[in-house]
Write a structure and sequence with these properties.
Helices cover about 30% and strands about 15% of the residues. It is α+β, with helices and mostly antiparallel strands. The chain has one domain: Glycoprotein, Type 4 Pilin (2-Layer Sandwich), CATH 3.30.700.10.
Length: about 170
């Protein structure tokens, strides 16, 4: 008589397979989070490029930048020159406040004024780069993943320079 061999897996084999699947899934999830964040950053860069095009069109029609700022002028330490919501009428990109002469917009879609983290894109004509006070630029930007902003600029900000000066 032949002895029948047992079929199936032992509990140890099953636990080893579960552990391997757990390790692989944690690696995949970590890479997925990184990929999502990189995608959001890429979207922000693309949005800023589109907004910059809208600003060029606004400047061509009205000879003004958002917030009725002078074109190609970089302020150095000015106050009140920022536009914190590029979809606002004051910005002149998605709608007008009625004070832009020869406004022929909208120059951007209102929906494109919010970054991938849910914060408004901004315009600032006295953005200081780095820790020194000798490089001032006019930018449009996003406060980045951490959302910290409104004159509290940090390393994760995503900006596009429109004009620069050094003093």
């Amino acid at each position: 008589m032949k002895k029948k061999s047992a079929k199936g897996f032992t509990i140890i084999e099953i636990l080893v397979v579960i552990a391997i699947i757990g390790i692989l899934s944690s690696v995949v999830l970590a890479n997925l989070r990184t990929a999502k964040e990189k995608a959001r950053i890429a979207i922000a860069h693309a949005d800023l490029k589109s907004i910059a095009t809208g600003i060029v069109l606004l400047a061509n029609d009205t000879s003004e930048w958002p917030g009725h700022n002078a074109v190609d002028v970089v302020d150095t330490g000015a106050s009140g020159n920022e536009v914190w919501d590029l979809g606002s009428p004051e910005a002149g990109l998605a709608q007008t406040d009625g004070l832009y002469i020869d406004w022929n917009g909208p120059y951007i879609r209102a929906a494109s004024t919010t970054d991938p983290w849910g914060n408004n894109y901004f315009f600032d004509s006295d953005y200081n780069i780095g820790t020194s006070t000798d490089i001032w630029v006019t930018v449009i930007g996003s406060f980045g993943p951490n959302g910290v902003g409104q004159n509290v600029y940090d390393a994760d900000n995503i900006i596009r320079i429109l004009a620069a000066t050094s003093s």
